[in-house]
């Protein structure tokens, strides 16, 4: 059985300190800075092997799907109610 890599509340608080500082630094309209930060994190994690690349791509796909499920889908549902469905 594969365990999900959930993070303890203690580790989240510690990481959130750094994340909050970083978000204050890159806050604003320039999505390029956000892209740069994510890219540098990916590069720091990657090694020159298929398994490393595959692992990172898998994590990105899961992040994308979870973001869509938790953030985008409720937004779309709200807009359907406001503007009507097209289907």
What does this structure look like?
The chain is mainly alpha-helical and 87 residues long. The chain has two domains: 7-45; 48-87. It contains three helices and no strands. The longest helix is centred in the last third of the chain and has 34 residues, at 50-83.
Q: How many strands, which pairing sense, and closed or not: the largest β-sheet?
A: none
Number of separate domains: 2
**Percent in helix:** over 70%
Number of helices: 3
Distance between the termini: 40 Å
What would you call the structural class? mainly alpha
What overall geometry do the principal axes of the alpha carbons give? extended
How many strand units?
Answer: 0
Q: How big a fraction of the residues is strand?
A: under 5%
Could you state the order of secondary-structure elements as H and E?
HHH
Weakly predicted, low-confidence segments: none
Query: Mean of residue pLDDT?
Result: 91
As a whole number of angstroms, the C-alpha radius of gyration is: 17 Å
């Amino acid at each position: 059985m594969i365990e999900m890599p959930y993070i303890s509340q203690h580790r989240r608080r510690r990481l959130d300190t750094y994340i909050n500082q970083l978000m204050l630094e890159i806050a604003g309209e320039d999505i390029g800075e956000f892209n740069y930060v994510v890219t540098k994190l990916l590069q720091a994690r990657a090694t020159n092997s298929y398994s490393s690349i595959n692992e990172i791509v898998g994590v990105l796909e899961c992040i994308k799907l979870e973001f869509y499920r938790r953030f985008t889908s409720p937004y779309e549902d709200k807009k359907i109610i406001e503007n009507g469905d097209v289907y």
